[in-house]
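Predict structure. Chain length: 116.
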Amino acid sequence: MRKSAAFAGFVVLLVSGLAPAQDAMKYGVKHLTLLTEDDRVRVLHFTPHKGDKTPIHSHPATVVYVIKGGKIKTTLPDGHSTITQLTEGEALLRPPVTHEDEALDDLDVILVELKK
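Prediction complete.
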């Protein structure tokens, strides 16, 4: 029950349509790698080290799989921030989101973005 409540809070805080969509890959950040892509999905490998930041960007609906967990600070376009603990082995279903993030720990995460 506690895990589902925490996830619900995570989802509510991440959902926002206040900023125009920006593809995170356009920034060329070293901690985000394209693994594969077709007309239905795009698979990204997110491996930030503590202190790495990603500028404001958007994701479509996404499946998140945590290989190595830790804390991440997420900031929405309206300036609201939250710190989330990602747990190793956790899989999350995330709705479309616009945000920026900062790794508070070293992380290793797979993102499967679902295209329309």
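Summary: Residues 4-20 have pLDDT under 50 and may be disordered.
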